[in-house]
What we know:
This protein is an alpha/beta fold. The protein is built from 16 helices and 13 strands.
Amino acid sequence: MQWLTRFSGRNDDRVSAVQIGRPSVAWASRWGVIAALQVAEALAVAANSCFWLALVLSRGTGSVEKVESLAVGIAVAAFVHIALQYRGAYDFSEILDMRRSCKSALIGWLLSAGTLSFVALLFVRTPSVGRIVILGWLAGLATLVGVRLTVARVADALVRARWLQHNILVIGSGPEAQRCAKLLRADSSGANVVGLVSVDWTSPSDCHEGVDAAQLSDLQRLINAKEVKDVIISTSFQEQGKLADLIRSLLWLPVRVFLWPPSLGVQTGLLTRSGYRMADIPLFLVGDPPLDGWHWVIKDVRDRTFALLLLISTSPVLLGIVLLIRLTSPGPILFKQQREGYGGRMFTIFKFRTMRVDGSPSSRLILTALDDPRVFPMGALLRKTSLDELPQLINVICGDMWLVGPRPHSPLATAAGQQYSTAVFGYMARLRVKPGITGWAQVNGRRGPTDTVEQIQQRCHYDLQYIQYLSLWFDLQILLQTAIKGFIHKNAY
């Protein structure tokens, strides 16, 4: 199977071989607009609910507890958010449509107002309460509609200024792919089809599970270079038998993967409701990045905060190591090297230097071996205890890494003479998240040399397992195991 790429629109330049990284969450994006709307609505609903509930209760009882009022306001805001989320009111195309957006605001506020009035009537039964409740309904609805109209106008202006371009790659061949691309190009919500990739099923290939590593690497570079957010598979119905292999191949990439319903013989007109719509086209979601949106933000902020606290608390240890390196080996304190990060983006990783300075530069990466003569005595102790990794807390604070994640590798690293991306199918799936200081593979003893392909395959197996089950509790479990047994290991040298 081969990818036959044809670019369209304003992006006709060929893809460079250099990978261009991009963050999973960009505030100047569709998600940034949606996040701003969610925060503004939550604050508006909570404040309005607190005010009117306090007014109602004070009319009936003469006093009201601020904590109780605040708790009810937060509960109502959460209830409204869940109701609007269920209705799809945070879909970007719905936010831009002012009529549908106002309708969603009306339904959401009626639900919350019903809850608010029920709570008020449980406590107070006076004639004046009814008038206050009605005024509260109207004020809350006006606030919610005002927030949505403001965000809709700002988002529309950003789309027209091409600041909120949402790049999409269509994979498929035949009239269905052309039709899908045509509908997307007619979209007014900022959808931008950057390319149409035809699949040549007839060409011979050593493909393994649908596409070989070299072809997948080319597609990865294409997606990174064009900053693609979504991939839509739109093959003909006759190619339905090949869909499973194609989908499995694309699930390694850090993008959302959608399936065009006619590829399964389903007409879009028959789908009255769909969880995902783009350019008013119903789509089936078949693959999603491990983290995106608020989940990514929470993980990122949490790890950076913990890294900063760890850096401060371990500063005496860090200063002691700096002094010992300075006294025992001439040369720089830190060792710096280029590693692959999220989406294939290269970054500079920091470690305490543990080897003697060699003035002869080499383009070939030489992995550390047992009793390596390049390692000086103090460096051997640092490597054995993994204390040489502590400067990577700076990488976490800067946003290049997380505390927990797959370990970052050098692009020159090999196993049995093969580069990692060639030796392990699906290796690039590790790049769907940021690399970490410690990981699931490390606490399971998968560290040290990679002399054989099986060693890097086992390591990648644990890395992909971590990505599949990524959660706060899983991170805490890995950090706890690292603190107990992860610092010293027989393969740490």
